[in-house]
Amino acid sequence: MHFSEQKKRLVVTLKLPLLLPSSFPPSIFPDMSPSRSAAVLLALLAGSAWAQTPTNEASEAGLTDPATECTPANNFAPVAAAVASSAFPSIWLPVQSLLPNDSEGAAKFAAMSGSIPNIAPKGVLGVLNETIEDTYPASDPDCWWTVATCVTPKAPGVNPDIASVPEPNTLGYGFDDGPNCSHNAFYDFLSEQKQKATMYYIGSNVIDWPYQAQRAIADGHEICVHTWSHRMMTAFTNEQAFGELWYTMQAIKLVTGVTPTCWRPPLGDVDDRIRYIAQQLGLFTVLWKYNSNDWEVSAGSATPAQVQANYNALVADAQSGAFDTVGAIILTHELNNYTMQTAIDNYKNLSAAFKHIVPVGVALNQTQPYVESNYTQQTFEQYINNEAATPGNSTGSDAGTGTAAAPGSSSTGSGSKSGSASSGEATGSSSAVSVRSFSLTSVVLGLCGIVACLV
């Protein structure tokens, strides 16, 4: 994948449509003029939002109107206190340095800084140098995924990436860029299918939408880090890259009570320097081999037909036996209504093509997905047989020591042939669980805090 393609993905500026009275269907209130109907509808929406301001995760999860879902509650006290005390960097801006009052972060960074691989940053503040591909050696000395899709590090002591899952005929299921403020319909759908997934959360989104982030834990999904500002990680200095991961881990811990042991680099941009920093923070790196490119529709660089073709290619490979020995991971997003609805629409076909669909950590038998030992995740066998996790029998990254252990093999699995992809069947259509009608609200209030959208 060339840098010119990567660069287009970084920031998408939005042109927001203006809602005029004529935009509303006149049939909403047939006895009123369109302008009067619009005024009444807006008043009802405003009243509904006022009456339904969530006060906890459960009340947020019960909302069905996306406008209300995406109205900032601003009443989660831990986040309010942390922001007031400058415990986090400015949301959506790249981390420029560790905060002056962060003695814990400074100590952790100092402890690792002398052993970080001597690889120069490939850009400035998360933006890659435009000429980097022309000068980067063909031998790929840094195991730089962006130009070489390298997943086996060349620096000593750096663990390999997870780009597929060891369980045969299994899909490692997950979604980047959350939590999306309007994701209730999508998460409701996953719950109806008894389907869990790996959610790669952006730190700034977690601060913006704490109750939505908490829903992932409440529903039993696995949470991984997806950086603070969603920039190209190899284009940060060591300290900045550390901060992008560290403050996201801190935000997730503050909001959900757990500290992840996994992460995914935005756009897959990682090299051995960044891998090492993440590993010293107790994080293993998750990539993919199949890409839906669903985010590109909102960016204007792909069509829905092209995205569907990418899903179809994965299904065809599964049906052809391509995953009879090793499973797959596909890159998808909860970025906006289109990406979430497309996931819903394709779930039935994926369920038919794969024997099992599970969170990535489950496929790796990561029974302790977080630093905190009081949370236990199901083994692969337990998940596919709908059995409860076994408390006190956790395996996983040794995150408590500050380094991540390699979480699993990419060549062998448990050998299980039992179970099913899910205990229910997806309806797979917008008529069953529709999020397409939420598109304006998601664009305005979703991933990017109203102004711009990171993919």
From TrEMBL:
One GO cellular component, as annotated: plasma membrane
Reactions this protein catalyses: [(1->4)-N-acetyl-beta-D-glucosaminyl](n) + n H2O = chitosan + n acetate
BP terms from Gene Ontology: cell wall organization; chitin catabolic process; fungal-type cell wall biogenesis; polysaccharide catabolic process
Cellular compartments annotated: Cell membrane; Secreted, Cell wall
Key words of the record: Carbohydrate metabolism, Cell membrane, Cell wall, Cell wall biogenesis/degradation, Chitin degradation, Cobalt, Glycoprotein, GPI-anchor, Hydrolase, Lipoprotein, Membrane, Metal-binding, Polysaccharide degradation, Secreted, Signal
Enzyme class: hydrolase
Pfam families, sorted: Polysacc_deac_1
Protein name, as recorded: chitin deacetylase
